Amino acid sequence: MSSLKEFIAGLGIVDVHEHHLPEVFSNREVNLLQLFQQSYAGWTRARPYPLPSETRDSDPMLAAAGPTTWEALVPYLEHCGSNCFVRNLVRGITELHGDGKDITRENWEALEAAVRERHRQADWCASVLRNAGIERVITDPYSDPLLNAHEAFGKHYNSVLRINALACGWHPDSRDHNGNSAHSLLARLGLEAASFHDYLAALEKLVEDLTSRHQVALKNALAYDRDVAFDEPDEKTARQAWGKWSPSVAERKAFGDFIVDHLCRLAGERDIPVQMHLGTAIIRGSHPLKAASLVERHPRTRFLLMHLAYPWSRDLLGMAFVYRNIWLDLTWSLLLSPSHFKLALHEAIEILPDESRLMIGGDNWHVEETYATMKLARQLIGEVLEEKVESGYFREADARRLAARIFKENALRFFKLT
Ligand SMILES: [Zn+2]
Which sequence spans correspond to the domains of the chain? Predict the structure, then answer.
């Protein structure tokens, strides 16, 4: 019989979270420097979202990359070389394009040539996903929240509808941190919102038509726009924001709270899952307990809470024990800190009420990073399960059953993928 590690290496993956965007993922002109800039390694050099105290002109991840030179790579490889995002990406690039070791002054030009040539091949991305054992992908294409991923990437893709713009849609000119306008999105679907009442009705239509765009969930990434304290809806103050170019802080918050509550109720009535980013982001407001009242007000809504709410994993696990409408997407937490991930996964296995609760995604832009992330996921989850078996916590058969659920079966059921 094969070892637990071999068993895990052979599992097919339903990848519940990526940022595969047509303009980045399907771009045929990609160089080595771009792979660093358009990945979490890029976040070591420039955080791609502003804090409330900052402004930005454009998203550095979506800006054109310059030519690859050794001097341009050194800041990533040496200055930021200890960071896990960098280590993960270097592993992906060298395994797919080189000798699997390192990027050096001697070999970078050969790697650059290989990256450019492979990305010009029409089948490159699909072949890497196959190689990584990824069978289905759910992408969050935040540059176009209405993207039909089936049409953009093929039948093994679905997408989620990011709701950030909707929660910031008090005025036709208001936009979320990705630059999306709710009113422009609605107009593309022929929906008009001349009044607050019309707006709520248009959002209902948007949710009703999710399946026509092969969208399988709502995605709340508002932790990048505001805090996640989605309080009891206050319709009066929310309505005061409507039509204003610059509503007060209290009016904006009430508007966002009201819209998020409305969408969570619509999702619950239709049994559509809601993904929510927790942790890091605008870090003063992203603690998972701030979102507890939203989860509690909507017991029929299935929430998929993301990233183990790093660095507050234990608080999130406590919530997932108390509120039985919480599922956990392990995505990104393993890239932020593999050491913390292993500790948190040990605890998650112990405290979660049943084996349906855990899922995994890559959370990446280019296929090299997705490949490396899923390899890391198999390694770390394998190590934790092996430790659990060795300590006598459960038997190897239990570990195998749980692994198959984490990598694939839970996601198929949770998102009702056929
Ligand atoms: Zn993400």
Answer: 4-27+123-414, 29-121
